[in-house]
Structure formats: C-alpha cells, structure tokens
Design brief:
Elements (H helix, E strand, L loop, with lengths): L1 H24 L8 H24 L5 H22 L8 H6 L1 H22 L1 H6 L4 H23 L3 H31 L4 H24 L11 H30 L4 H20 L2 H15 L6 H12 L6 H12 L5 E6 L4 E8 L8 E2 L3 H9 L3 E2 H6 L11 H4 L4 E9 L2 E9 L9 H64 L3 H27 L7 E4 H10 L9 E4 L5 E4 L1 H17 L7 E8 L6 E8 L6 H6 L16 H11 L3 E7 L3 E9 L3 H9 L1
Helix pairs in contact: 1-2, 1-9, 2-3, 3-5, 3-7, 5-7, 7-8, 7-10, 8-9, 10-11, 10-12, 13-14, 14-18, 18-19, 20-21, 21-23
C-alpha cells in the first residue's frame, strides 16, 4: 500500500516538473536564467521519475537515485546563485577562484557526492566512520545551505522584484525545508521514515505551481549581488548554529546508544549543556565582534558598510537624552568594537577636563591644552595607538604622553576631536573585544567620526551658552523695567517737592500728596515682592476702564498742570491686568504732564467705538506741550533705551505699545512741534454675553 502511495507521489512530482520543463523550453525560453531553471526542472523530473519507478518495481533505492538527488539539490542551488547574480562577472574557473560562496557550495556538494559514492561502493569503510550518519548529516547540511541561499535571495532583492520572487522563494525553500525535516528525523531515529519519504513527492509537486507563478511574473531575474554585512552576519550565525546543533545531536545520539542505562540521562544533560553553550556564544559580545571582523576581512573589500555605520552613528548622536558626551563615546567605540572609553573637552580655563566615561571608572585627571600631548594631537591630527607607541615612540615624534594616560585601564587609542582646525578635546578607548588592524580605512573613519562628534558637542555647548545668555537677558530686561518703574516713582515724588513748598497750606493738595506717596509706597512693595518671590504675571481679568483712569488721574492730581478726565461713556470694561494697564496709562499721562508747561492742559477722554453689541474702548491722552516731529515718532519714540530726558530709560513708550498689542489693541500717536501730542489707545471691549456666545460656539 505504501509503495503505491510513493508511486503516485513521485509520479505527480515528475509530471509537475516535466510541465515546468516544457514551459521553460517553449513559452518562457526567452526569460533570464532559463537554462539554469530548465536544468533544475530536468534534474527534478528525472529524480522523481526514478523514485516512482523504484517504488513500483525495485526493492531498494539504487546508487543512481542518490546521485540524482545530489544533482537535483545542486541544480536548484546553482539556480539560486544565478538569481543572486554570482555569474554575471565572468565564467568558469575564474569565478570559482575568486568567489568564496561559490567555492563553499561546490565543495559541499563534492563532499556529499564523495560520501554517497563511499556509501555505495565501500560500505565497510563507511561503517568504520559512523555508518550512514555522516551521509545523512551532509544531506541535512545541504538542506540548510539551500535555505540560507533562499533567505539571501529574498533579503537582497529590491521591493519591486520581491513581488515576483516571493513565490519562487516559497517553493524552493519548501523543498529544502522538507528535506531538512526528513533527514533530521532520520538522524534522530537512525532510520528513514517511510511515510515522510513517501509524502516527499507530493511536497515537491506542490512547490512547482509556486515556482511557475514566479516565472510568469518576472521577465528578468537579474541584479547585482549586494549582500549587506548585517544579513551576512545573521546568515552566518544561523548556518553556524544549525551545523553546531547537527553535530551536538549526533553526539547526543551516540551517548544514548553507547551509554547503557545512563544513556538517556547523559543525552538530555549533554544536549541541555550544548544548548546553553550555544546561547552563551551567540549572546557573547566578544564572539559577535569576532564574527563581524571575520566577515568584513574575508568577504568584503572594505571593512565597513558605510551607509549602515553612518546611519547608526548619526542616530546615536542625535538621540534624545541629556548625556550627549557619553553617547559620543559609545558611538565612536562601536566603530572598532571597543568596550569602553572616556572623553575630555577643552574649557575656557585652558584645561581639557573629563566630562564623561562609558563602561569605565570615574576619572578626574585634566590635561593642559598647551601640553605636548594636546599640541601633538592638534598639529598632527593623528590617532595614537598606545601599543604601537610603547613599542616605538619615535613614530609619534617621541612625544611625552602623561603617565595617567599610559596607566589608563587597557588603553588602546587616543583620538583627537578637531573642530575648525582646533583641538576641542580628545577621547581614550579601551582595547577591542576582537583584534582589529588599524589600517588607513579604520583610522580615517575614526577621524571623521570624532570630527562629527566634536561638532555635535560644540553645538550642545553653544546651545547651553545661548540658554544661559537668554536667562541673563530675561533677567536684565526685567531689571530694566523695574528700574524704569522706580525712576517714574522717584520722578513723581520729586515733582511733589516744589509744589509742596507752594501749596503746603492747601488741605486739598496735602490730601493729593498723601495719596501719591501712599500709592508709590504700595507699588514699591509690590515690586519687591515680585523680585523676592519671582511671581508669575497676573492673569488678565475684566475691569472697569473708567475706574482705572480715575485712579491714575487722582495719583497725578498733585502735579501741574493737573490732568483732567472726561468720561463720555461710563461702565466700559476691558480684559487686562489692572496693575500693568494702570502703569502703562499712567506712564503716558506722566509723559504728557512732563512735556507740558504749568499753564498748559492735559486731558484724558474715554469713549466707546463701534456698535452696541461689539466695538472697542478709546482712551485719548492729549497735551498742549512741546510736541514731537514725525522723524522722532518714526525712528526714536518706540526704540528701547532711546530717551530725550536726562534721567530717562527710554523703555516707557516701548513697554506701553508692547502691552497694548498684547491685549489686542493699538497705540497711535499724532503730534506737531509746539502744538502738543495726542496718544490714542484702542482696546477691545469686554462683553460678557458676547464672550459666552463665542465660547459656546
């Protein structure tokens, strides 16, 4: 019964790949790599047909069956190599001589063919080296090698080609995956499972439509091979892990077979230990560093994949976080697999001081910027190899390197950080996990990486200096406004003195003077409180503008000319901070008084502009004083620190305009020399009903 199943199974596989062969030789004969695919389809057809015939008429497989199986596997591997682009640069033995992967594939199948020949023609000799187990292991290894080629093909093709290739990868990968399952089961149980072997033909037949669909989708399977280091690293780790597990499984089987009553226990313990050892090796930083160096040295003409390295380097430097100096050490050290280092930066004091360390104990030694080491690094821009320096100091002009550098734990490299031709610091790195040869490529990469790190560090230092400068600027600006307010208060009190001698017996003047002094004291107390507590600015609130103007005018009642307030529309409200708006309007009134002779006039008018439901508030402050020219208004009136007064600060008008604009209003001025000045302050009218409707909307 099982033989009939095998006949149908392998017969279906032979028929399926015969159809693929016919299509390839007729309809698809013009496609790229048609000969390689036709050869693989032919080998699979012959192999499946032979298996079907032997299942029907033979008692055991012949040596031709094993040979065709090897040829079939090799043909599909060659087809995958064609798709990877290995045969585009030449042909024949020259390719084999210069391509390591081709030599690996050819050598592996030659070894497998030799083992199969030995099994068929010298079974006695094969029994001395372990029976059929080495042959089965090689067959499983061929399946692993095929899966690696499939993975390489899919990873290294661009997205537009993966659309066609994915079905070919599924089909061919399915062949190799099932073969690996078959031979792994054979190694485990020391015999070929007939059910798994019988189903193998059906599996092969099911893969043919996937391969045919891929061929129909692609008219040209060709691109240059460009295997990234990351892909090759993971593929090498995968292949090594598979080979290791195969060897360990074989060893575990022998322990069970020859261990007697302890065999099963010894097998479980051995396999567990082998698995733990494999995990430890794969997660070992030293092993990963060695594998990367080995791949770069033996598979590539350059040591680095510069795109990947530079993207990772820049990504680490530009990552979020305050400790940029430590990230700079980590980024530079990662280029040469160094496990740790420290960074020194040049300060204004003339010393290069330690600022960060990575996987290193805290260091405190500083180096003068004019020392022999720093001068050498700045003038030569050389990378100092401390091991080479210890052997031959003359290569580095016999410079005197400080003892603390030479005693640095496992010190390896001294790297200069050059910024615009000037030494901005230096970095020390420890010995790498795996031996790295310092050739021109590595040294140049370290130099440019250190220069990039220096620019990032300099940008951070500049940003911090700018932040400090802005803080001082904010403090100085606040101090300027405080001094200006104090100046206004002093000026108000100073104006009271000559009027006090003149009107000291006038009760009304005495009351005005008392109100002015009381208000001045209160304002000075508020300023002191703000300076001591650093209070946040008060939030705007609705206020009656006529009441605020009455208070501002009453505080100026003791001056001459006495300002006059005319409220045409009472009860108007605006949204503002009482103290700041009173200070702004009071400043404009004070300027009008100071610019007007005693027999002149200063008037303040308040009225409403616009409709009943909306509109604005207009405050006009007019005087009959000296006036201003248009040039002065345009060029100097609102310019900070410009003043015509002997003790003026020149920021009163600037502050008034800024705060009025902040409230959403405008400040306009009209003036003529010797004819007076009028300031028009327009503020948005606060309407509670309108505000409620606006919030609801």
């Amino acid at each position: 019964m099982l033989s009939s199943v095998a006949v149908f199974s392998y017969g279906a596989a032979a028929a399926a790949f015969a159809v693929l062969l016919v299509l390839q030789l007729s309809v698809w004969r013009g496609r790229a790599h048609a000969p390689a695919l036709a050869a693989a389809a032919l080998a699979t057809t012959l192999w499946a047909a032979l298996n079907a015939w032997e299942a029907a008429y033979a008692t055991q497989p012949s040596e031709w069956n094993d040979a065709l199986d090897i040829v079939r596997n090799a043909a599909w591997s060659v087809f995958l190599l064609f798709l990877l682009g290995f045969f585009q640069r030449g042909a024949g033995w020259q390719l084999l001589r210069h391509n390591r992967l081709l030599r690996l594939v050819a050598g592996f199948y030659a070894l497998l063919l030799a083992a199969e020949t030995l099994a068929n023609w010298a079974p006695g000799l094969l029994a001395r080296v372990g029976g059929m187990l080495p042959v089965v292991m090689l067959r499983a290894g061929a399946a692993v090698l095929g899966m690696i080629l499939v993975e390489q093909l899919y990873r290294n093709k661009p997205l537009q080609e993966r659309w066609a290739l994915k079905y070919a990868c599924l089909g061919i990968g399915g062949m190799y995956a099932y073969d690996f399952y078959l031979y792994s089961d054979t190694m485990l149980f020391r015999q070929l499972n007939p059910d798994i072997w019988a189903a193998r033909g059906f599996v092969q037949a099911l893969t043919m439509p996937l391969i045919a669909l891929a061929v129909s989708r692609s008219k040209a399977w060709s691109s240059e091979l460009s295997v990234s280091r990351r892909v090759l690293f993971h593929s090498a780790a995968l292949a090594g892990s598979a080979a290791y597990l195969l060897v360990m499984s074989s060893a575990g089987y022998y322990l069970r077979f020859f261990g007697g009553s302890w065999g099963s226990v010894m097998q479980v313990a051995f396999l567990f230990g082998a698995t733990v050892l494999l995990a430890g090796v794969l997660f070992s930083g030293a092993f990963r560093a060695w594998l990367k160096v080995f791949i770069s040295k033996h598979f590539y003409s350059y040591n680095y994949d510069y795109r990947e390295e530079w993207m990772g380097f820049t990504r680490m430097l530009s990552a979020d976080g305050p400790n940029l100096a430590e990230r700079a050490i980590q980024a530079v050290a990662g280029l040469v697999e160094s496990p740790g280092g420290a960074l020194w930066l040049r300060r204004e004091s003339g010393l290069c001081e330690p600022v960060a360390q990575w996987h290193m104990p805290l260091v405190s030694e500083a180096e003068p910027a004019d020392s022999a080491l720093c001068q050498f690094l700045e003038s030569k821009n050389w990378v100092i190899d401390m091991q080479e320096y210890e052997r031959s100091p003359s290569l580095y002009d016999d410079i005197a390197i400080p003892d603390w550098v030479r005693q640095f734990p496992r010190v390896w490299l001294v790297l200069p950080l050059i910024m615009q031709g000037r030494l901005s610091g230096f970095m020390l790195l420890q010995l790498p996990r795996s031996a790295i040869q310092l050739n021109w490529e590595v040294i140049d990469l370290l130099k440019i990486a250190c220069s990039q790190a220096a620019s990032y560090l300099a940008q951070q230092e500049a940003a911090m200096a700018l932040m400090v400068a802005r803080q001082f600027e904010s403090f100085n600006r606040m101090s300027t406004f405080v001094v200006h307010d104090l100046k206004n208060l002093v000026a108000q009190l100073s104006l009271l003195i000559p009027n006090a001698h003149k009107h000291r017996n006038n009760p009304e003047f005495q009351q005005d003077m008392l109100d002015t002094v009381t208000h001045s004291v209160q304002k000075m107390k508020l300023m002191l409180q703000k300076l001591s507590r650093n209070d946040a600015p008060a939030r705007p609130a609705p206020l009656f503008i006529d009441q605020l103007l009455q208070q501002a005018v009453s505080l100026k009642a003791a001056f001459e000319p006495r300002p006059q307030l005319r409220v045409e529309t009472p009860g108007l409200r605006v949204l503002a901070d009482w103290e700041r708006l009173e200070r702004v309007l009071g400043h404009l009134i004070q300027n009008a008084i100071e610019a007007t002779p005693r027999d002149g006039q200063v008037t303040i008018a308040l009225r409403r502009l616009g409709s009943v439901t909306g509109g604005a508030v207009l405050v006009e402050i007019s005087d009959s004083g000296a006036g201003m020219t248009e040039e002065f208004i345009r060029d100097r009136l609102y310019k900070p620190f410009e003043s015509t007064k002997p003790a003026g600060m020149g920021i009163g008008a600037f502050e008034s305009r800024e705060y009025i604009h902040e409230l959403g209003g405008t400040l306009e001025v009209s003036s003529r020399p010797q004819q007076g000045t009028t300031f028009q302050v327009t503020l948005p009218l606060y309407n509670q009903d309108a505000m409620s409707v606006e919030r609801a909307a």
